[in-house]
Each structure stands twice: as C-alpha cells, then as structure tokens.
From TrEMBL:
It is a multi-pass membrane protein. Keywords: Acyltransferase, Endoplasmic reticulum, Lipid biosynthesis, Lipid metabolism, Membrane, Transferase, Transmembrane, Transmembrane helix. The chain crosses the membrane at residues 20-43. It is an enzyme of class 2 (transferase). Belongs to the diacylglycerol acyltransferase family. This is Acyltransferase. It is found in: Endoplasmic reticulum membrane. InterPro entries: DAGAT. GO terms for molecular function: diacylglycerol O-acyltransferase activity. It comes from Daphnia magna.
Amino acid sequence: MGCFCLDRLVLFMGPAALLGFLYLFFFTRFYFVPLFYLAWYVADIKTPECGGRRWNWVRKWSLWKDYASYFPVSLVKEADLDPKFNYFIGSHPHGILCSGAFCNFATEGTNVSKVFPGIRFTLTTLNCQFVMPLYREFFMTSGAVSASRKSIDYVLGSSCGGNAVVLVVGGAPESLDTHPNLDDITLILKPRKGFIRLALKHGAHLVPSFSFGENEVYDQVDNPRGSRLRNFQDYLQKLIGLAPVLIKGRGIFQYSFGIIPNRRPITTVVGKPIPVERTGNPSDEQVNELHSKYVSELVDLFERHKNKYYPPREHIKLKIL
C-alpha cells in the first residue's frame, strides 16, 4: 500500500497542485493563496541549487519502510565510509524511476544512516523535478538537490567531510534502455565525465554502486534504438529533459498491466571507495584516467555480485555506452 500511495504521489502531486492553484485563482475568492505561493516560489527558486531543504523527520516516515518492503529494497555495503572524507557515489542503473537510489539514499527506508554512520547522503536529480508546485517542496524534504555543477559544488564545498553526493550517472536517457530479463544491462557511462571532474576538484572519493533488480520492476513498450518510437522519445528527452517512457507495470488487483511497479527485489550494493586527491583544475588526462578506474571498479563490483542477485542469468553482463 505504501508503494501504491507513493507512485500516485509522484505522478500526480505536482499536476494536481497546479490545477488546484489555477482553480483557486480563477474560480474562487481565495485567489490570494496561489499569489502568495507564487511569491514564495520566486523567492525560493534557487534553493535546490543551494543545499535544498532537508527534513529528517520526513525521511524517517514509516511510509518509506513500507515502500522498501514492497519490492523489497535492501542496502549492502562492501566497506565503511570514513566521515573524515566527502564522497561522490555513482548510482547505476537508472531504471525507470530510480527506486533503489531514492529509497536507499533519499529516505530512511533501509536505515542508511545506520548502515553508514556519520554520512549525510544527498540525492541529485534533474532540475525539472523542482518545477511543479508543492511537489518541489515535498521532494526537497528528502534532501534531494539539483544535479547541476553549482549545486554539487555547494554540497561538496560546504564541509570538510561526511557528505556523500549521489548521482544517477546514466540519467534520463538510460531509462529508455530499461527492459527486464535481458542478457545485457545498458549503462550510459562513457561520455559521463563531469562527475569525475567534480570529484577531482573537491577531492571527493568516488564510490560505485549498483542496484541489482532495478531494471526488473517495470517494463516498457518495445523501443529498439533506431526505431521511430525511440527516435521520437530521444527527441522529446532532449527537448524536455525527462524521458517519455511508456511504462508497463501492474494494477492493484491484477498483474498484467498498470502503472504500479512489479514486486521484484532491488539490492543496492555500495562498493569500496576509490581515493581521490583534490585537484583544483584537473587535466583531461587526469579525468580520463580516473574515469577508466571508476568504470573498471564498477564492472568488478557487478561481476562479484551478479551470480548472487541474478542467479537464473549467470551470463548477464554490462553493456557500457
């Protein structure tokens, strides 16, 4: 039930709030309510790039425990993270809704603060997530911030240790390659080097993580690369930022179709940190070298755990684009 409520909240909270404000403004005598909110919205517009607005009591809602138990979602660590350092955690794969990354790092659904004591996790996401009224306020309570360079500079530059920025590296384009039960898991990683440069700039240790089962909770309409549908989706994604995925989930009382995610285990394994020395102005050579090391560590992490979390598909492998 928690998962059902959350999905409806994510999908409809923002549009419902917008329609509600329009109704109040045009058809009631409470027109001043949306005007007050608009003034607040304009004054608060830069908050997602300035550390956000974390409310720990919201992160600890029992709803997130229900959400975690629905799939279920679990969190596994290969090593402790020393609070003396800052960290840049790469989250893979994107999946459809980043259920593993959200549950593990934006809530206390899997008790991340106990698994990694002394570490403050900050999930980054597209700036368009902070556009819809009221939804932006709710989403920021999780500690989420914009995935912009300015925003990440703010978080990693605001303390000498104990901060962990979580970036879903593949981004929205990767979600268009999300299909369950494939022999290849596609990751868009080769051109993604901005996070490497930021890690070097701030001396934030790099940590690969992989959510096994993330691609299994939803399917989508068949959209092979080069097809008309995929070309149209790619065009829209570049235009609006979000990927227009035609999802195929389950319903409330039946399992053949709907928008509710399927109940499939998601296990997020957080790997060992890769030490990074602070480099004020890293060269392309330094960025490429660290990027290659990160990719190698991520692949090794996947290979170490794939037989445990994908037992029927022992030949599954990563396809890195």
